[in-house]
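user: Kindly work through both lines:
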Amino acid sequence: TKYQKRWSAASSGGDAPMSAEIERAKKYCQVIRAICHTQVSKVKIGQKKANVKEIQVNGGTTAAKVDFVTGLFEQEVKVSDVFGQDEMI
């Protein structure tokens, strides 16, 4: 895809990949959202297709939000890290 080609070109340059896009988001954006997906292979419910959600990040400055989300790139976030026992959604 076009995005993947841009990412590989930016990462081969030696600088952090997509650093210009990340700095632009810190400077101009007010709302930061992360696109997340489920890992269906870890849950035995008979579903094959992953659920994809766009989750808005709240709290702090825009730069702090962007740093928080970029710190979670390619990381696993467990449900227990986000929600407590018997917490209503």
Observations:
- The longest strand covers residues 32-37.
- The radius of gyration is 16 Å.
- The beta strands are 32-37, 52-57.
